[in-house]
Amino acid sequence: MTAPTLPPHSGTTAPDAPGTPLAETLHSLVINWFDDNARDLPWRRPDAGAWGVMVSEFMLQQTPVSRVLPVYEQWLKRWPRPADLAKEAPGEAVRAWGRLGYPRRALRLHGAAVAITERHGGDVPTEHAQLLALPGIGEYTAAAVASFAYGQRHAVLDTNVRRVLARAVTGVQYPPNATTAAERRLARTLLPEDAPTAARWAAASMELGALVCTAKNEACHRCPIAEHCAWRLAGKPEHDGPPRRGQTYAGTDRQVRGKLLAVLRKAHAPVPQAVLDRVWHEPVQRARALDGLVADGLVEPLPGGMYRLPLT
Questions:
Q1: pLDDT tens, position by position, 175-201
Q2: In whole angstroms, how far apart are CA 20 and each of 26, 27, 191?
């Protein structure tokens, strides 16, 4: 479908409602681009089902697709349904999570699988409110699963979508560090009226942010909505908001936690304190990291200074 040529949105007032020409133009251009350029990812295939979509959403949080793909495929092969994961000890979920990072996600996904099995007969629920009531699932994940698995109409606001809307509509380089009420209102305002198109728009705008409207080195020459992008038309003004948070890793407690978990994941019997002491030279930071893992339920302490992944 050919979209009409319209003047860009200035970003200074509320965007047009879903049925107005500018919103329809954005929908048409981005969805048509997505039809031609979407990556063939396993969680987008029809046989992935709602459980495959949910697993992918947990794994993709703050983690690139290239790192997720092998773990995702192994996970679904081992646990093709929520009930299969629910039967296992939570420590097995942590073990299978490998080095994806932020391993509490593994425990939350295990908890969600248990709840799905107990409350919903082993099927991922279809209602947004039911998804939101599952342990470990927040507004974003509930909206993403409802949209991508069940084709429902929800605003799905991940980092990529937020960046696309910030630039194309609001006219700024980056969105705020944390999602704001104004961003949620903007996303809801821009949602297409019919559910299938809204679900497609959610996936398409996310892909646009991942492949073209990236945080650095954005490829405006390949962007389907460049002619309507408020930020580009304003001359790409530099970000003047609060400093963007960087993600440091080397030398942090996160790195120490990862090293400790790596030892425990490889072990199929309890590990003595002396073995864990070898993974990091600084005893105070090492102890703090281990205490944090225990407090988060990722590591279970045993009598005699032994440790293991959690069984319950």
A1: 998 999 999 999 999 999 999 999 999
A2: 10, 11, 11
Distance (Å) of CA 219 to CA 142, 208, 215, 292: 30, 10, 10, 41
Per the listing, tokens 């069940």 go with: 150
Digit-coded pLDDT (tens) for 194-242 = 999 999 999 999 999 999 999 999 999 999 999 999 999 999 999 887 7
From the options 3.10.20.30, 3.40.50.2300, 2.40.110.10, 1.10.340.30, give the CATH code of 1-247: 1.10.340.30
- Considering the chain, tell me which residue range(s) the CATH 1.10.340.30 domain(s) occupy: 1-247
- Averaged confidence pLDDT in the chain: 91
Quick one: how far is CA 303 from the chain centroid? 38
Q: What H or E segment, with its residue span, contains residue 302?
A: strand 300-302
229: three-class secondary structure by DSSP: coil
Q: Which amino acids are annotated catalytic?
A: 57
Within 10 angstroms of residue 73's Cβ, the number of other Cβ atoms is: 11
CB 34 within 8 A of CB 200: yes
Assessment of whether the complete model's pTM goes beyond 0.85: yes
Asked if residue 175 lies in contact with residue 183, where contact means CB atoms within 8 angstroms, the answer is: yes
Architecture of domain 253-308: Orthogonal Bundle (1.10)
Q: List 302's β-bridge partners, or say none.
A: 306
* Nearest-angstrom CA–CA distance, 11 and 222: 22
N- to C-terminal Cα separation, the chain: 54
Q: Which tokens belong to 142?
A: 């509930």
User: What residues does CATH 1.10.10 cover in the chain?
Assistant: 253-308
